[in-house]
């Protein structure tokens, strides 16, 4: 609050400061100066007292000096000429026998921040670097950085830089850390401190002497150093090992960042081990009393879960929300819970999230419902039961988010459509916001034949279209009415006519009007043409639910660890939600990896895989993971090249579905010469694999983990205990050769696969060798079955196909034996 008697107070203070009687009494003089600082803090302009305060700094009282220096540093820029009067006093204080006075004088000499005073400051600062008192050296080192900021474009004195480098070996750890900070600031344009082996080992050996923030600074600077040998690398990691379990979270985070920086390129196993060891400190930070610390820890845990999805699985209860926690903490915890859901804890997690759905904060309730929807992509039945119960609450904000969540769930999991359509009845009366109504209209349009009252709900929307303010709702209403008309024309014809008439004749929004004109002209072309445009290919319900996004390599996010980047990122579910939401789907299959139709010869048995496979080339990293009977079969081809499997570039679920279903079109359709050539470059192979377990009763995550070890990515599973049981997967094959020579050239092929188990004899595809093995079933009372494997490859590479099938067969046998 501004001081009301400003001018009178300044005059009174000037008289008091100039009064000889006040100056003679040290206590009264100090109290008067304290009043000046108090008035200054209240917003009164006391710059007119600058000359009186300059006189007051000539004292032996340290407290009075500190008060005067606060005033002088605040108003020096407004009085640059009078500030010259202070320099003599400050330079004199730099020679004071009291180290506190010397350090105080140096600090305030640089805090004046006047370029005209630089020439007077350099000599005291250089002397301060060699001072016998550590507190003076600390101030002098930082003073050079402040001096550089005053004149950033001037040349840096090499003698000063050399002196600062030599002071890295100062006995005081604070001086050492201040030297690092000063050199970082002064050598910013050159990349900062140059760290060699001697400096790196010196900093590591003195790391324990520094305080928390000093250790963080040292660890950050050490990220620039790259060990020359592997032995040196492990020596550094051994020195850092105690700091990895530090009770101070900033030190632990900085140490882990250095670990990832050193190990990510070539030692992923060491990086993973370091991540696992840090879960204890991170969990402790999640229980911190500081909300900011808790939020930061949660953001970094989300970062770790991108590479280690099950890292915190055993501690999922630590992420249950507290009643008094802020909304942003609750939302982050729910995002982490979604990542930690598995078969063992899904019931408890869903019960906990269900309680949050009725939270007093609408944002928290909506976040909980969205989290249930994301879990529903793997556990649809349980989640749909909860979502259906929430619709019965008839609360506007809850109903809106539930309908939007159901929209996303139906898009990703088509097998949920019937349950969702049954639950939609009556919710149109509760929806008031535009996003909820758009989601409802989309569901009615896409699945209008399954919702008995769909035409009548749309009729109610059409009757109120004149009062509708949202253009998005109108465009969605047009699309929904058109789709329902195609499947139920008798009930929707009149409604569609009135809606088109309004949108064309009365609507002022040009986007809505143009869409209505498009539909009107499309109807003139005929019903079949309209149906072909509006009712495109839908997802195959047998694809099942998505297991989740694949684990990312640590190197993809290691550079952003222990920075502000994880805090700036949006919701963790944004990425996964964008894959399933209709408003965010991008269907852009890459032309270079399009799969054409399967060859007729392959379907007729001409391309079936021979059991007596010749030696197939494979990468060493893959062969090491295979069981002993199969490892010897993977050998380099005659040209010295080796086959490797890779997950890059990744395929989205939409791209996979488009490529897989696109190859199942009519193979007898007329094609041009170019299309026939592309077809000849593709291959489709089918074979049957005997397994000693019942696939549809086993855990999908076990098979997914086994395939991931050999760089085969699973895209989708059918729900457990469901027949027919399907798994969809893909990988890329590459030939690696230092000297390309046919047939082992440095080429890449895309391989898509399907595993099918029908549970009966009809699902088998047998060749001659398989028939000979037909009598050897159910040994020792164990259940056996046959999994039909269908593989598509483009471009065609028979050697790569044999190598892939060998790896896949070996992996299935390994899972079967375990």
UniProtKB/TrEMBL annotation:
Q: Which gene encodes it?
A: Ap4b1
Q: Which InterPro entries match?
A: AP_beta (IPR026739), ARM-like (IPR011989), ARM-type_fold (IPR016024), B-adaptin_app_sub_C (IPR015151), Clathrin/coatomer_adapt-like_N (IPR002553), TBP_dom_sf (IPR012295)
A GO term from the CC aspect: clathrin adaptor complex
Q: What is this protein called?
A: AP-4 complex subunit beta-1
Give the UniProt subcellular location, in the record's own words.
Endomembrane system
Q: Where is this region: Disordered?
A: 570-591, 761-795
**Chain intervals with Basic and acidic residues compositional bias:** 763-787
Q: SMART domains in the record, alphabetically?
A: B2-adapt-app_C
Name the PANTHER family for this protein.
Answer: ADAPTOR COMPLEX SUBUNIT BETA FAMILY MEMBER (PTHR11134)
Residues in Beta-adaptin appendage C-terminal subdomain domain copies? 643-813
